């Protein structure tokens, strides 16, 4: 088994480092010359995409967070209504699904019981309703039962905490954005070219973010004794904050929760004092100034602050504020993919320092095949 881990101490760290390659593989043969290639989603996809009026994403766990990021993209960039829901809620609440809704089931394993139950329910209701699977397991039940399939090519993911599967899901959802945009005429050619060019740069930018690993380990030392942590983000960084909090709780057993930064005053601010570290992500975008005022509110109350920032964000370290510049000039699509990397590393290093079973956290399974 140690041979499979190569030079790495854990599968999780190996899989974190495999992300540049996994993303390059997921993009391979699907984009070229500034365009999404017509065959990327298989036969019949364009016809479905041309008439889609709504997207419903269904998933669990980390896959659900990837879906939440995509909702920001689909509505903002394509003006296409998009809903995202955890499968276990969706399939028990008798949901209303309007015609011309594309169902997107996101799953690393393709065997998650609730995700399968949700698509089976939808198919029973209307066998003609199209279901697209974005999945990492080619032989899985989800792939067999879906009309359209896009494989994430992350390769086998052994660590229970999902890392490379999540990143390749985000890239796959960006490909879906391009494919729907093109088939439905909702995306200008220049925008398509910009997004494709940005995606091509993602593997290299992840590599750069991975190079900050030692600095992230130093930050992890400041978190290891804490009992709680609050993650804050805005826009597409809100689901990334949720994913960062999930990773930390899954493998380090530190209680972590994520909040949209704009909700601070509606509750979590009451928890802030020197025992509550706050972790946030600060890309250079139109919400940066708002995030900065949220940051000022938590530091004024004594919280130790950890910020993963754009190099141009104009944020600097101080006594209890630790700013780690991660990247710069990343667009709306690349930013969540890249800013997630230091959060993965943070959770990993905290877990290693705590001495937990990183790849096999207590009580958790890689694939939840029974409810
Ligand atoms: C479990 C795993 C998570 C995963 C979730 C959904 O909770 O521990 O890593 O995100 O299931 O799994 P799926 O295979 O459907 O993506």
From TrEMBL:
Subcellular location: Cytoplasm
Annotated EC: 2.6.1.16
Role description: Catalyzes the first step in hexosamine metabolism, converting fructose-6P into glucosamine-6P using glutamine as a nitrogen source.
Any GO molecular function: carbohydrate derivative binding
Presence of the UniProt keyword Zinc in the record: no
GO cellular component terms listed in the entry, alphabetical order: cytosol
Catalytic reactions of this protein: D-fructose 6-phosphate + L-glutamine = D-glucosamine 6-phosphate + L-glutamate
UniProt-listed GO biological process terms: carbohydrate metabolic process; fructose 6-phosphate metabolic process; protein N-linked glycosylation; UDP-N-acetylglucosamine metabolic process
Domain of life: Bacteria
Active site annotation, chain numbering: 366
Keyword Transferase: yes
Chief site of localization: cytoplasm
Keywords: Aminotransferase, Cytoplasm, Glutamine amidotransferase, Repeat, Transferase
Assembly and binders: Homodimer.
The species this protein was found in: Guyparkeria halophila
Protein name: Glutamine--fructose-6-phosphate aminotransferase [isomerizing]
Section of the entire sequence shown: 247 to 617 of 617
Domain SIS: 44-186, 219-361
């Amino acid at each position: 088994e140690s041979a499979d881990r190569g030079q790495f101490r854990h599968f999780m760290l190996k899989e974190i480092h495999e992300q540049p390659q996994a993303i390059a593989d997921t993009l391979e043969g699907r984009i070229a010359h500034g365009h999404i290639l017509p065959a990327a989603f298989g036969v019949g996809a364009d016809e479905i995409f041309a008439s889609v009026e709504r997207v419903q994403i269904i998933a669990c766990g980390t896959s659900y967070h990837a879906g939440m990021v995509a909702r920001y993209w689909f509505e903002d960039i394509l003006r296409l209504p998009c809903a995202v829901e955890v499968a276990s809620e969706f399939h028990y609440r008798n949901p209303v699904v309007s015609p011309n809704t594309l169902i997107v089931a996101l799953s690393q394993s393709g065997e998650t019981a609730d995700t399968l139950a949700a698509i089976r329910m939808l198919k029973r209701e209307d066998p003609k309703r199209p279901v697209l699977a974005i999945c990492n397991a080619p032989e899985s039940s989800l792939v067999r039962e879906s009309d359209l399939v896009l494989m994430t090519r992350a390769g086998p993911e052994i660590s229970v905490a999902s890392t490379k599967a999540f990143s390749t899901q985000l890239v796959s959802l960006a490909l879906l954005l391009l494919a729907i945009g093109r088939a439905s005429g909702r995306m200008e050619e220049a925008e398509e070219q910009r997004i494709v060019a940005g995606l091509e740069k993602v593997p290299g930018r992840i590599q750069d973010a991975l190079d900050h690993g030692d600095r992230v380990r130093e930050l992890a030392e400041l978190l290891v004794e804490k009992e709680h942590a609050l993650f804050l983000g805005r826009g597409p960084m809100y689901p990334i904050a949720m994913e960062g909090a999930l990773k930390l709780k899954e493998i380090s057993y530190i209680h972590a929760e994520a909040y949209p930064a704009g909700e601070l005053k509606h509750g979590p601010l009451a928890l802030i004092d020197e025992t509550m570290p706050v972790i946030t992500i600060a890309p250079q975008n139109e919400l940066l100034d708002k995030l900065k005022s949220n940051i000022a509110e938590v530091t004024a109350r004594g919280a130790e602050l950890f910020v993963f920032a754009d190099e141009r964000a104009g944020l600097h370290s101080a006594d209890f504020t630790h700013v780690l510049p991660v990247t710069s000039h990343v667009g709306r699509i690349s930013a969540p993919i890249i800013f997630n990397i230091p959060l993965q590393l943070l959770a990993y290093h905290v877990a290693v320092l705590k001495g937990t079973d990183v790849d096999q956290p207590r009580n958790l399974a890689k694939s939840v095949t029974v409810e």
